[in-house]
Amino acid sequence: RRVHGTEARKRQTDEMKLISILFFKAQHNSGTELETRPQPVLLCCAHELRSFAFGYFRTGIKETTVFFGRTFVRSSDRSVRKTIKHQEYDCHMFVGSDGLAGVVFADSEYPARVAFTLLNKLMDEFRQLYADGSWKQASADLAFPFPKLNERLSYYQDPHNADVLLKINRDLDETKIILHKSIESALDRGQKLEDLIARTNDLSAMSKAFAKDSKALNRCCVIL
After folding, report:
1. CB atoms within 10 A of CB 69
2. Are 90 and 106 in contact (CB under 8 A)?
3. Which residues are CB-neighbours of 179 under 8 A, at least 6 positions away?
4. Sheet holding 41-47, edge to edge
5. Which of 30, 101, 127, 191 could form a disulfide with 73 if both were Cys (CB 3.0 to 4.6 A apart)?
6. What digits encode the pLDDT tens for the residues 182-216?
7. What secondary structure letter does DSSP report for 117?
8. How far is CA 66 from CA 15, 101, 123, in A?
9. Which residues 6+ apart lie within 8 Å of 17 measured at CB?
10. What distance in Å separates the CA atoms of residue 183 and residue 201, rounded to the nearest whole number?
11. In this structure, are residues 83 and 103 in contact, taking their beta carbons and an 8 Å threshold?
12. What's the rounded Cα separation, in Å, for the pair 164 and 175?
């Protein structure tokens, strides 16, 4: 019976996927008008895309996660946790009071509480790595590497590895998480996804077509 339970757990966790983790520097204060907010700066990122079948889909996913991560961070106030759902995938994000923003993209089977606990840990590690606060002066993307990020992304593919973190971070039980059931509901009034895609520099022409297709992500998810 114990073996059966272990095998069942492995099958369950094998079906879960952590896709991307990204850190941004938010350049706005809470309450400022969206139109006046500068674009967030991408500090570092890591992706786990081996379960996606084709190289051009992997490129599209990388660029799309950067685009949506930057878009959601810019539209969020500080000290706010959000989950944005899109079909079978979730974007979990937290903008700290100091402007450091963490974003996790995962499938909907990955527990939200684990994702936010992981973000807490990684954001603290990033702050310790750059204890001088130099990341706050970032003006160009990917200028603040975080070597442990790929290792953490791989390790926490199994959410059970975060059990110890969950016991330590019980404060998340009392933390409100804003849930958006679609990408559109996470955007500010008057914003249209098509317009944002057309204007962004985060997406190549191929990825812009990829991002516009709401079914593209599901089509490319062929497990190798």
Report:
1. 26
2. yes
3. 82, 83, 85
4. 41-47, 18-25, 100-107, 89-95, 80-86, 177-180
5. 101
6. 777 777 666 777 888 888 989 888 788 766 664 44
7. H
8. 24, 13, 17
9. 48, 51, 106, 107, 109, 110, 157
10. 19
11. no
12. 18
